[in-house]
Amino acid sequence: MAAAASPTPTKALPPLRVAITGGAGQIAYSLVFMIARGGVFGDRAVDLRLLDIEAASDKLRAVGMELQDVASPFVLRCTCTTDPLEAFMDADVALLVGARPRGPGMLRKDLLAANAGIFKAQGAVLDEVASRDCKVVVVGNPANTNALLCMRSAPSLPKRNFTALTRLDQNRTAGMLAAKIGVPVSMIRNAVIWGNHSATQVPMVTFATVEEGRAVETVAARLGEGGERWVSEELVPGVQQRGKEVIAARGASSAASAASAICDHIRDWVMGSDGRVVSMAVSSDGNPFGVREGLIFSFPVVIEAGGAWRFASGFTIDEATRSAIEATQSELLEEREAALAATA
Ligand SMILES: NC(=O)c1ccc[n+]([C@@H]2O[C@H](COP(=O)([O-])OP(=O)(O)OC[C@H]3O[C@@H](n4cnc5c(N)ncnc54)[C@H](O)[C@@H]3O)[C@@H](O)[C@H]2O)c1
Ligand SMILES: O=C(O)C[C@H](O)C(=O)O
């Protein structure tokens, strides 16, 4: 039997210029190689630029060596650099993963200040040299507030092009639901995340469904008696605390699952979500859900092929969810004030 042909990149389109910060870090060590397998950008090849700081330059160089050794037809070029200008020049996609980790004795507000400075500076460079349609995904924590600072220092780029990653939280929610119900996770639709990528996030499964071909059932019906209680007492806190649980178990934060979620996020953004509702933290300006403007907030969105996203319809918010959304909104408002004060 003949072996299946390996996927090959198109020659009809130029490679996408993809910048990844934190190139020597844990997440990048999975992410770069997932991208190299092809498919994340359809059949487009990539011109990768991996950015890290001087102290990590040897490790970064090693990632470059390993990437060359993968011999991927999808990676036309890979530049390892410590210069943000070189990394972001004409970038079509910027995956901002690199951030300062929390050190011993460091308070959350110290971390917020250190990282806000990094993302403010990177926003200014993107503003100067990136493609005018550069799609920006912020992963480094606190991701929503870092994305806001980045967006504010890039006024010549569209606000709609700045996002933060909450797809990992959505995937965690879908994964836990699928395990509980006993179906493949691909059957779970419309489980979404509101707000901050933090313990105040609001996983919502009110409109979640289990879809098998044309058969559609609500998750509530599949969970049956006791389902509502399981959602509020186990699923929601389970998703909110999953990052902490992984850190406690492996001594480092989620990396492979985060990298996979980044691929899901950017693939759906570049290629469209095919009618599916997905969670992305985006600018809250003009949202129809009553969330305060001026934040980067996770919402259910639908993405057209080509990248235009819109807020999803049909997600009405009940009283309990409204009060949880207000709590995550308050946290984001506080983070915004602290980050702006620290970088003024
Ligand atoms: N949003 C999410 O769902 C999610 C999930 C997991 C992790 N995270 C966050 O992602 C970030 C990265 O995680 P990781 O496990 O890869 O961390 P890591 O510490 O392994 O790697 C971070 C890398 O960023 C680099 N870096 C620091 N400052 C930089 C700068 N100014 N420019 C470029 N690179 C810089 C570091 O040198 C390091 O190589 C962390 O902030 C983590 O909390 C977010
Ligand atoms: O790095 C963290 O604090 C946790 C991470 O954001 C995660 O959700 O796994």
Automatic annotation (TrEMBL):
The active site is at 197 (proton acceptor). The keyword Calcium does not apply. SUPFAM superfamilies: LDH C-terminal domain-like, NAD(P)-binding Rossmann-fold domains. GO terms for biological process: malate metabolic process; tricarboxylic acid cycle. Residues 166-341 form the Lactate/malate dehydrogenase C-terminal domain. Keywords: NAD, Oxidoreductase, Tricarboxylic acid cycle. The keyword NAD applies. InterPro entries: L-lactate/malate_DH (IPR001557), Lactate/malate_DH_C (IPR022383), Lactate/malate_DH_N (IPR001236), Lactate_DH/Glyco_Ohase_4_C (IPR015955), Malate_DH_AS (IPR001252), Malate_DH_type2 (IPR010945), NAD(P)-bd_dom_sf (IPR036291). It comes from the Eukaryota. Its EC number is 1.1.1.37. NAD(+) binds at residues 52, 115, 139-141. Substrate binds at residues 102, 108, 141, 172. It catalyses: (S)-malate + NAD(+) = oxaloacetate + NADH + H(+). GO terms for molecular function: L-malate dehydrogenase (NAD+) activity. Residues 17-162 form the Lactate/malate dehydrogenase N-terminal domain. NCBIfam families: MalateDH-SF1, PRK05442.1. Belongs to the LDH/MDH superfamily. MDH type 2 family. This is Malate dehydrogenase.
